Amino acid sequence: MQELEGYQTEKLTISLIWANVFGILIIIPTGIIFGLPYYFLWEPKIDIKQLIGNLGSQIAGRGFILVIIILIIGIVLHELIHGITWAIFTKQGFKSLKFGVVWKMLTPYCHCKEVLNVKQYRIGSILPAIILGIVPSIIAILTGNFGLLIFGMLFTVASGGDFLTINLIRKENSTDLVLDHPSEIGCFIYRKIEEKANHNNG
After folding, report:
1. pTM of the predicted model, to two decimals?
2. pLDDT tens digits for 30-39?
């Protein structure tokens, strides 16, 4: 953790247990927000059960390899979107980033080693969910593409940890500073000392 003169630091992190529970719970609102509109728009025109059956057959056959490839590409893109966005805001660019995998949890990550302001950190945190999750889901609803719907919903759910992190700093001033936590879900928030007094009073 870096120390910045004139700033008071607070660690804001989320327990792994809660992150895992949230990852399951978020399936429900994701299904309601995207799944229900898709069903009501396309159910009269297509057989959902048949589509699910076909998808299952593909997964059980050669399509399984394709599904795995698509998932891996999506996971890599998720972390790259974090990294590319944060790199734009950092002084050192990609030199300020660290990519890796927590193997015991099979969890890939992108860690920004440079301090960002809250607004920049929020943008970098939410963009993977928008680009890989929300936008594909909306396109799927409009076009009736079931495979794209599954992809979009999956990567919306996969952004659960990002949603939790953004929620941690929802009340922070957009000009306050943030340092991504190197090993936990969360960050360090840097508030100017006079701002911290106002934050506590509020």
Report:
1. 0.83
2. 999 999 999 9
